[in-house]
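ERR on first pass: missing label on line 2. Operator R.T. fixed the label and resubmitted. Corrected input:
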Amino acid sequence: MLPATTLIVAFASAGLVYLAGKVHARLRDLLAVLSSLVLVGLIGLGYGAWGELVYVPDFLGVELVLRLNLLAWFFAITVAAVVSLSTIFSLTYMRRKPSATFHYSTTLAVEGAMLGIVFAGDLLSFFIFWEIMSWSAYLLISCNRGRALDAGLKYIIMSLVGSCAMLIGLLAVYAGLGVLRIPLVAEGMQAASPGFVLLVLLTFGLAFGIKSAMVPLHTWLPDAHSEAASPFSAVLSGVLIKMGIYGFVLLMYAVVGLKLLLGLGSGWLSFHHVLCWLGAITVVIPTFIAVLQTDAKRLLAWSSIGQIGYIILGISFGTPLAFAGAIFHALNHAICKGLLFLAVGAVEHNTGGVRNLNDLGGLAKRMPVTFACALVAGLGLIGIPLTSGFVPKWLIYRTLIEEGHPFLALAALIGTWGAILYVYKLLHNIFLGQLPEKHNEVRCSPPSMRIPLLLFGLAILVFGVAPGIPLRAVQGIGATFGFAQLKVTLWGLASEAGALNMLNICFAIVIAFTAVFLLMRLGAKGPRVSQEDSYAAGSAVPVGRYSYTVDFYSPLSHMIAPYLKDRVDQFYYWLAARGREIADLTRRMYTGYAGTYVLYIVSFLALLIFLQLVWQIW
Amino acid sequence: MVTRIIQLVLSPVIALVVAVLFLGLSRKIVARIHRRYGPPIYQPIIDVIRLMTQHSISHGALFELGVVFALAGSLVTVLFIPLGGTNAPPGSYPLAHGLLCPLSSSGGLLVVIYLMLFSPISIALGAGASANPNASIGVSRKMLLALAYELPFLLVILAIMSHYGTISIAEIVSRQQDSAWGVFSVPLAAVAAFLILPAMVGIRPFDVVGAPQEIASGPLVEYGGRYLALLTVQSGVHLFIVIALFVDLFLGGGVNVVTFLLKMFAVFLAAELVSAVLPRVRIENALKFCWTWPTGLALAQMIITVVSR
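pass 2 clean. output:
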């Protein structure tokens, strides 16, 4: 049975890699890369397979089940692919770092936990793997010490709040329905009262919302993503936060079911409508906060929150097109953001740890492959045609417009225009413009860094021109949840009104490009000169002095910065401070005098006697 | 098949010819308003040919590819915009019915607004390949200006798309030809679109991106010779796209290409009359302007559309 095999391989290799690290670094590297690739192969073989496996028949009266279906497969292959490419990237990035062994083995453990989550066939296994993932991710986030410790603490506290909520939901389901296997729970849900359904949705939804960093539960993400090691940031942002999305899909469509979900509440106050608007807010505000960032990884982290907004918007809108767009966008975001974090990691590695956007520039000539790949990923994030980002966003916009929700569509579209601003800022401030003198020595990345970037970039272009490849799997998932079939072709969608054919667009662009290119060749040629040899009205531009990167969008940031303070984060900190005060008050009970404690005991006994005398409880 | 190829070639050719013509006309109109004689209408053709023969420096492959992608992106966008004609009944050849929109069936207005991004991003990347700070300042302004007019522009097209309940431009055009023009059915959106027209085209009072006297033509500062020739043509095609969209969305397209071009000329003339007498604004003021009047009008239109559905 495939899920069991993959889980055994993942967790066993996590242990083996740790042991190998004690023996020899090369052996450890080889083992880590091999096992992550084996996992990709294993899962790839399981395409289209279905099945269930009871792996613990009786755990305190509950069956623990693993299962494989198309939804699980889709998320599993994304997880395995992103983790394996991140592991290959780590070969150079992590070399000679003391925490390398720990990094490799814990990354594999996180992968195993994520695979466990998607393969879990009952809610208890789901919860167990969820906890393994949360805790091993915590270890990896705080691996760098210093500020990473605070970031990790913030992450794990918020995760624990989510886990507690999920545990309450789990207990409620078990108490209410007496079963935990997902198909049986789904059956029980159809007969349950709306209040019970809402309780389950809210408790589980809180956990998933925190993990996927939906506004207003997002505050752990910017710190954690920027402080973790770059290869793990790619995993975090690429697939780990998608586990929240997987949870939402599972909860909303596999457990509660489409019909019940859309019938919950009425008008503006229905569950899915509120979630749609949360998704829309998650698109707009974080996107513009990302525009203001000066730390490359922080910018990408905020952008992740914004892109998650699209996925949540699509999932909760609940039409076939929106659902397909959301699942496809989850894949697209995993690829694009994985690539971008690795690219920023490569820059960080080659420049000796610089990721401040104000200190970089002009690296395109030094790191051409990294630049080209980052460009493709940036365009994919915006959703330019011929990248994999276009079709999912087109699907989401189209359904929002045609179903008569122009304000949601506006939020989604504005998010895209914000994405253009931050993507260009990222690319320009790292790769374009003037090269600071201190980075003159920067050299091209080694192959182990370039290969993952190239593979990610290739995937973006292939899925952009032939969106039918992922769309077929996506619509298969939709079909299992009772959505109407889309007419998917390899090159896009065929339908009566408003078809989409990427091949047409691709051909048109290639032909136009060739024509214009030939036209340009007709013109008179000129010499190629260095970047610094530029026009400045007769007076030379001082090299390395006039870089226009600091405060790149100053007119805009002056206008919008006052409105974009993260008040939610401030509120949580306020809450944490009040919590500390209460704890401090409690501490004062312990005065250190034996007499005080005797007083507590005596007054407690007095209270018991009083209760007994008045109400005769015992 | 043959009609399709003819359409595919004809659309960009019309766009190129009209674009260059408009560039010439623009200089002539502004000159006459300023009580000058002005250059001949074919002056841009002379300029482009001259530029093609002049040698120009280059900063590398990205610098050159930026130009090529910019013009290619604009030409591809033209293929998605109906250039006059009534909508063909399903199953018949569109050209026989005079509808000049070779790729109308591929994604509609949403594809157009995405394809319109190709050129500015390409120019931004190409300009960034040089180390000239003027180019960076220009690109920064271009991005902000784009954000400034995109907010009202998106509101406008969302209002139209929800008013007609479709994302296909060809269908929006045919619906207008059946009933009233967009100017009458979504009037506030039309006014908003006209207010941001100069910003979208990049003419005064919103020519902050080029601004020759301040930042030496901004993104174009390093470009000369054949690159500048292609970019001049690109700016003309971009002008063509924006005005053609306006005609399609608000003036009911055209019964055939000729009436379509006449309507385009009317819109172009109106925009030039405004542009010729206004001075350049600062980028901050451009942001503020675009986010007040046009956005307010477009928002009002969208609320009306949503409520009246």
